[in-house]
Amino acid sequence: MSGHSKWATIKHKKGAADAARGKLFAKLLRQVEVSAREGGGDIDANATLRTMVQKARDASVPVDTIERAVKRGAGELEGVKYESITYEGYAPSGVAMLVETLSDNRNRTGAEVRNILSKNGGNLAEPGAVAWQFERKGQIVVDKAGGVTEDDLMLAALDAGAEDIADEGDNFRVTTAPTDLHAVRTAIEEAGIKVASSDLTMVAQNLVPLSSESDVRKVLRLLDALEDHDDVQAVHANFDIPDSVLQAL
Q1: How confident is the model at residue 10, as a pLDDT?
Q2: Which of residues 49 and 77 earns the better pLDDT score?
Q3: CA-closest candidate to residue 192, choices 126, 158, 150, 146
Q4: Helix axis angle, 213-227 relative to 106-119, nearest 10°?
């Protein structure tokens, strides 16, 4: 798997501190709200909303808080209007990055993303310069601690339309077409296998290897700075970290 996936898995296993969890909740609720506004508040008819609601539930966001976010998005409650903006750029060592944001002030968010990139050795790119290197996919993480075997997971997931299953050490990562994410997750759970998380993500088609610890630290520092911004919902990058370097970190 890509180094970014390895890093995301490690951070997931560490667990979030209370303050970080509060920030995570806010970001997830913003995603729910925007999904409801763009596709309607009916979770059965809005696949993106269904995915975002499930993502919030996986993170233990209270159900009533999620429901209020759906109502705000659907116009049943008043709230701030957010728009989805994706920025394209480069990190040190030529690593391509997609930065997905939800903002109530496009000019402010754009300036702040540009500033974070420039302060950490990166730069913004023209629209289209980076996006072609990524493909939208659904991904499901299954924790091996539940005792699931790869054969059992393959039987449930592949029959439901999964494209790939990767062994990531403590987890299995199932990749699907975006439209098949819900069906594959449902099939896995109906087979008695517990799902740790599922989400829509952007998967890099080609990876840039980072051979030195210094290069890795520069990229991860930028990644963390972007992800810490309140408007940033997700950062996707095409770097790969050798296991030996990652373990040293």
Answers
A1: 57
A2: 49
A3: 146
A4: 160
Largest Cα separation within the chain, whole Å, is 52
Same fold: 3-73 with 83-132+208-248: no
CA distance 220 to 27: 20
The fold of 83-132+208-248 is Alpha-Beta Plaits (3.30.70)
Domain 133-204: which CATH number of 3.30.2090.10, 3.40.50.620, 3.30.70.980, 3.40.366.10: 3.30.70.980
| Nearest alpha carbon to residue 123 among 87, 82, 161 | 87
Let me know if domain 3-73 sits in CATH 1.20.200.10.
Answer: no
Q: Torsions phi, psi of 235, nearest 5?
A: -125, 130
Q: What is the pLDDT of residue 29?
A: 92
Please compute, for residue 241, the number of CA atoms within 13 A of its CA located in the half-sphere on the CB side. 23
Give the pLDDT score at 9. 60
Residue 20: predicted pLDDT: 63
| Domain locations along the chain | 3-73, 83-132+208-248, 133-204
